[in-house]
């Protein structure tokens, strides 16, 4: 593939009377140069005063983890093949060796309060929604990384519908208005189209799509249509939207590869246009009339920004003379006024992703006028600045009753009462005065059944009876009182994308986790709260004082709180300015003295006073031509001798820098990389708790069979122990301390695996866990539980497979591997049917023995809604008829302290 100039401009905005812009230079002529210039740019600017760069950095991080410039097309194909294979394997009944260890959700599922009144956090990004055509209580949403969710009670509760699909990234949900049981969804994350369309070194395979899936029963079950793609298609695998025809069986689907037509409900598809499609919308009043926009991708000088119209449900198309410059605009979104179909509006972003213009037609697209090119309603504050995020967040909607009143979404929400000639503000992402919505708007829609406006953005789902507009004083958005009464209806969806997790064995129930674009969440005394902003990254809980917590945001911005998050202060400002932390900068705590903490930048730093002052513990060489060393991705301290440290540094293709593993012993650092793959990204290191010559390291990337390695001689040699792991990134490795069976867990891009002395290879340990990226794993020894953070479905918890470590055994003796500690659960078989049900179901269970037998039912929020003690028996059949609201539930059968969980859905329809 030819490498083509990749241009991107990133704007920096400071909160003052002046609006400043910082430009990233034009990227070079190949992907490695592009990545290198981004790294150079960010090392020279103050990111805390910059806007518009995080979306790029997030996906550069994904790229790094999945192989960087070294990944091949074949490896990309294999990646999704593996996801499909594992999802099918999980659907098969798990062997008895793994039964009794099912996963259940652990939150958060409600927007927690923030320690700052200004915080705009919520639960996670929602890309789209769809309304039932006849029942206002039924709404579906498509979550960026968390699947399709459904409510049957107008948003009071939600349940997931797609956890078993190979990927659960959603760009569109479409309902047949003539038959609401027939639905299509587009699998993939369309928001990143244009970031690096088909550019060799930027293969964001975690965001590629799998085409269109179909349901015939209102979303309860899904199957792939024949509009699917392999990963060699790259961005062409992304589909934007599906529109139903009135003719049964016919629909059109639009995406990067153009427009496709099916006449037989998705069994076959015919391509009728091959242009890249940004948007496609139906006229709400005239059947068969559809408007569509094509796009220009500036970073590849590819395509053309245009508006097209069809009057025959997309069979034929006519290009409209919109006046939009085809090479000076990138993305166009279009909308039709429900009160007058002659009024059609379009909004376009320019080459810097700021506002190019708002256009209007009053004759159904025959002619157009430019209504506004200023203020820049796509930038981050009052519209006086340049740039924006228009290729990532852009939407437009006409008021249902007034064709001159329009609303637009970029970072914030703006509106016009005169057809786009003048503009007022409707929301601001920083809640300085009054409640507003989260930043980064992706989808607007009005529901004629309940007469409410709905907004999807990076925080979740909001609605209101009316969108109020107010003049926006230039340069002072924080002094504006926003008039709209927004209702957040994201609660009930566990959809947060977490990067890292920590728990406190000394303080059961305390959990902290860092989330993409929604800060850091801390659960204490059963309650969640938001305690830090930005992209929440690595975090720690002090076992000696539950009020001492550590948090971080991207590139090593570390903060500490001594009062449970109410007040925090930076503890990374005295790290030398030439140090560069990774996107997720790792932190660790001394295994005995919790006042001693460590942080990994290019070098390892230690603080003896909880981060007030830092001293370097290493002096690694700098990258070629740079003033800083390659960032540390993971490290671990020996429990026997904390001065002994294993450490991993990332691969950096931009600088021809291989990954490396180091051992610190006797105050000296030794490179112990020999025998390990140095072209892959090391993600995690774990040291044996009783023998620090034994350690493990895990790797991301898409190279088959190179996932986890073990050393038993302090890194002098390494053994590959990857057998059984799928060819997807392994994001974390965790050993169960003092396990007599050497039990270990691996968190991957499609769930959790485990191995021990009783298995011949890694085996799936994901019963009940959605098919989602597992980003981190922690073990709670007092609870005998394992916790996992996921990138899109929140936090999950399960029983440990191995109870041999409670209490810690006598390690001087040889364990009896014939004992029943591993996978021991007295529940042999357990079933609940029908599923879904109305609250009436039959429970059948076969038990090896009965000991303190009981059942518990929890809802999707983790709230206990039913419990019952069961008489001792070895086989039970019991019918239940419970008054449960529509939603997702989990029935936990507990026997002898061990539990087995089955999810089930309650629907009243």
Characteristic key phrases:
5 domains, disordered N terminus, 3 helices, 909 residues, four-stranded antiparallel β-sheet, Neuraminidase, Methylamine Dehydrogenase, Chain H, mainly beta
The percent of residues in helical segments reads: under 10%
Give the neighbour order of strands across the main sheet: 1-56-55-54
What does the main sheet amount to?
4 strands, antiparallel
Give the integer mean of the pLDDT values. 86
Rounded to the nearest angstrom, the distance between the terminal CA atoms is: 51 Å
Any idea of the CATH topology of the largest domain? Neuraminidase
CATH architecture of the largest domain: 6 Propeller
Name of the CATH class of the largest domain: Mainly Beta
Point out poorly predicted stretches. Answer: 1-30, 68-74, 93-100, 196-205, 813-821
Radius of gyration: 27 Å
Describe what you observe in this structure:
The protein has 909 residues and is mostly beta strands. The protein has five domains: 50 residues; 149 residues, Methylamine Dehydrogenase, Chain H (7 Propeller); 213 residues, 6 Propeller (Neuraminidase), CATH 2.120.10; 181 residues, YVTN repeat-like/Quinoprotein amine dehydrogenase (Methylamine Dehydrogenase, Chain H, 7 Propeller), CATH 2.130.10.10; 80 residues, Immunoglobulin-like, CATH 2.60.40. Helix content is 5%, strand content 36%. It has a four-stranded antiparallel β-sheet, with no helix packed on it. Strand 40 and strand 41 form a beta hairpin. The chain is globular and about 80 Å long. The two termini are 51 Å apart. 57% of the residues are buried.
């Amino acid at each position: 593939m030819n490498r083509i100039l990749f241009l991107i401009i990133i704007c920096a905005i400071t909160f003052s009377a002046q609006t400043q812009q910082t430009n990233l230079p034009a990227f070079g002529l190949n992907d490695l140069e592009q990545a290198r210039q981004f790294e150079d740019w960010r090392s020279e600017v103050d990111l805390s005063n910059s806007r518009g760069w995080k979306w790029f950095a997030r996906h550069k991080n994904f790229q790094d983890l999945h192989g960087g410039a070294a990944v091949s097309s074949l490896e990309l194909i294999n990646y999704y093949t593996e996801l499909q294979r594992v999802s099918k394997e999980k659907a098969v009944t798990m062997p008895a060796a793994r039964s009794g260890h099912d996963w259940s959700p652990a939150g958060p599922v409600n927007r927690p309060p923030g320690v700052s009144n200004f915080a705009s956090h919520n639960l996670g990004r929602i890309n789209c929604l769809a309304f039932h055509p006849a029942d206002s209580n039924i709404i579906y949403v498509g979550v960026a990384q968390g699947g399709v969710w459904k409510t049957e009670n107008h948003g009071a509760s939600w349940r997931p519908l797609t956890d078993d699909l190979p990927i659960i990234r959603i760009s569109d949900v479409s309902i047949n208005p003539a038959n609401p049981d027939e639905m299509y969804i587009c699998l993939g994350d369309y928001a990143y189209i244009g970031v690096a369309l088909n550019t060799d070194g930027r293969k964001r395979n975690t965001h590629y799509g799998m085409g269109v899936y179909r349901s015939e029963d209102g979303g309860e079950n899904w199957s792939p249509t024949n509009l699917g793609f392999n990963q060699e298609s790259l961005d062409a695998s992304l589909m934007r939207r599906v529109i139903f025809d009135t003719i049964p069986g016919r629909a059109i689907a639009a995406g990067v590869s153009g427009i496709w037509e099916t006449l037989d409900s998705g069994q076959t598809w015919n391509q009728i246009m091959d242009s890249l499609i940004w948007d496609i919308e139906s006229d709400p009043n005239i059947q068969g009339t559809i408007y569509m926009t094509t796009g220009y991708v500036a970073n590849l000088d590819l395509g053309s920004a245009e508006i097209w119209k069809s009057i025959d449900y997309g069979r034929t198309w006519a290009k409209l003379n919109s006046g939009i410059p085809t090479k000076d605009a990138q993305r166009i979104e279009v909308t039709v006024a429900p009160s007058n179909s002659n009024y059609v509006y379009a909004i376009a972003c320019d080459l810097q992703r700021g506002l190019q213009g708002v256009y209007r037609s009053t004759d159904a697209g025959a002619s157009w006028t430019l209504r506004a090119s200023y203020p820049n309603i796509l930038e981050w504050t009052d519209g006086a600045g340049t740039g924006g995020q228009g290729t990532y967040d852009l939407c437009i909607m006409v008021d249902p009753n007034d064709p001159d009143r329009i609303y637009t979404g970029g970072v914030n929400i703006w509106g016009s009462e005169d057809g786009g000639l003048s503009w007022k503000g409707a929301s601001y992402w920083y809640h300085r005065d009054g409640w507003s919505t989260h930043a980064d708007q992706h989808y607007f829609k009005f529901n004629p059944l309940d007469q409410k406006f709905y907004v999807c953005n990076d925080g979740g789902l909001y609605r209101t009876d009316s969108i109020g507009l107010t003049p926006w004083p230039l340069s002072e958005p924080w002094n504006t009182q926003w008039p709209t009464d927004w209702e957040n209806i994201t609660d009930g969806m566990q959809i947060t994308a977490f990067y890292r997790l920590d728990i406190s064995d000394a303080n059961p129930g305390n959990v902290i986790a860092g989330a993409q674009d929604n800060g850091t969440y801390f659960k204490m005394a059963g309650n969640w709260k938001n305690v830090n902003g930005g992209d929440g990254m690595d975090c720690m809980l002090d076992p000696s004082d539950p009020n001492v917590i550590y948090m971080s945001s991207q590139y090593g911005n570390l903060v500490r709180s001594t009062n449970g998050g109410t007040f925090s202060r930076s503890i990374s400002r005295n790290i030398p300015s030439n140090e560069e932390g990774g996107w997720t900068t790792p932190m660790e705590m001394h295994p005995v003295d919790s006042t001693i903490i460590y942080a990994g930048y290019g070098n390892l730093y230690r603080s003896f006073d909880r981060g007030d002052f830092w001293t370097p513990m290493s002096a690694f060489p700098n990258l070629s031509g740079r003033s800083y060393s390659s960032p540390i991705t993971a490290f671990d301290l020996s429990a026997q001798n904390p001065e002994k440290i294993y450490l991993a540094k990332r691969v950096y293709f931009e600088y021809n820098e291989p990954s490396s593993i180091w051992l610190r012993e006797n105050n000296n650092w030794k490179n112990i990389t020999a025998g390990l793959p140095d072209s892959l990204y090391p993600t995690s290191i774990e040291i044996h708790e009783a023998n620090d010559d034994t350690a493990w390291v895990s790797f991301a990337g898409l190279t088959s069979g190179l996932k986890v390695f073990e050393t038993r001689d302090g890194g002098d040699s390494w053994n590959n122990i990857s057998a059984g792991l799928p060819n997807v990134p392994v994001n974390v490795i965790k050993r169960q301390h003092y396990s007599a069976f050497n039990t270990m867990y691996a968190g991957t891009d499609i769930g959790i695996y485990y191995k021990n002395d009783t298995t011949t290879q890694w085996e799936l340990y994901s019963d009940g866990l959605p098919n989602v990226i597992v980003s981190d794993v922690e073990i709670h020894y007092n609870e005998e539980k394992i916790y996992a953070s996921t990138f899109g479905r929140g936090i999950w918890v399960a029983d440990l497979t191995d109870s041999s470590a409670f209490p810690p055994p006598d390690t001087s003796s040889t364990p009896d591997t014939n004992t029943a500690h591993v996978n021991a659960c007295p529940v042999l078989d357990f079933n609940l049917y029908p599923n879904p049900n109305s609250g009436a179901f039959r429970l059948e269970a076969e038990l090896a023995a009965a000991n303190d037998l009981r059942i518990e039912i929890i809802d999707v929020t983790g709230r206990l809604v039913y419990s019952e003690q069961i008489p001792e028996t070895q086989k039970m059949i019991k019918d239940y008829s419970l008054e449960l609201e529509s939603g997702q539930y989990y029935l936990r059968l507990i026997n002898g302290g061990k539990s087995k969980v089955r999810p089930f859905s309650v629907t009243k329809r």
